[in-house]
Design a protein that fits this description.
0% helix, single chain
């Protein structure tokens, strides 16, 4: 299966996390990451993001599951 870049970060304005995957910005309260990811520091906001590669994500009620 082909893997795509994903990243997620905390969004202070809405007080929740956002997951970015294949051109989508998905706001969520909880994230379950089932694949490896790494930190990336930016000089502008968001200062810290977690990024990696995954094949798919599942969107549940208040949770996003990032699959390997």
């Amino acid at each position: 299966m082909k893997k795509y870049r994903f990243f997620f970060h905390y969004r202070k304005q809405t007080k929740e996390m956002t997951v970015h995957f294949r051109g989508q910005c998905i706001p969520t309260q909880n994230i379950e990451c089932r694949t490896s990811c790494e930190t990336k520091w930016n000089k502008t906001q968001p200062n810290l993001i977690m990024q990696g590669y995954c094949s798919s994500i599942e969107i549940l009620k208040e949770k996003v599951i990032i699959n390997e």
